Amino acid sequence: MTLRMQQQMAKSGTKLGKGGMPTYPTHAPVYRYRAPWYIGLPGQRPSDILKMREHDIINRTLQITQAKTGKKLRISLEGELLDLINWLKDRKVKHTITSLHLIVDDAGQKLSYFMLRSHFNRARELVGFRKDVFQFRDLQAKAGTDKAESSGDIRQAQKQLGHVNVTMTETYIRGRKGDKITPTK
Q1: N or C: which end of the chain has fewer CB within 10 A?
Q2: 114 and 26: one domain?
Q3: Closest Cα partner for 25 from 102, 123, 145?
Q4: In a domain, 183, yes or no
Q5: Are residues 101 and 46 in the same domain?
Q6: Residue 125 burial (CB < 10 Å; 0-12/13-18/19+)?
Q7: SS3 of 153, please?
Q8: pTM of the complete model
């Protein structure tokens, strides 16, 4: 999380929840405020997230082909991502007619890009972030940064983000948090 985001959260009194993401009011329709998780956990572009279907889950992996690069990925379903996928599937059961897409609206139909963006904007407002502090595109950069730091290997983040070369991944990560260095002594 950037320093500007931390300062903005401190001003608004926002608390961080599971996975370092902000918590939301309990009275809010929860699915609308999970937009940051949809993109942040798998670390994919919004267009790729919205294309994900139930039949893309094979042997506890989410298999996708990235639209921008054509790169094929198998994302292991574990931890918070597995919890999110199970929550999405459970939510769909109550609809009589549903789409095979993983992310659906109130009627069980495929969620559009504009609806996902609207949900993200509303979630951002609820936690008190200004638009210039945290944007939709920052979610993928956060995912890459988190992956590189948790694995200790920037190439893992490169694979997750689908970058052709590590230079682009370095740009994402350094642009978000800055270079990580040690003191002189």
Answers
A1: C
A2: yes
A3: 123
A4: no
A5: yes
A6: exposed
A7: coil
A8: 0.71
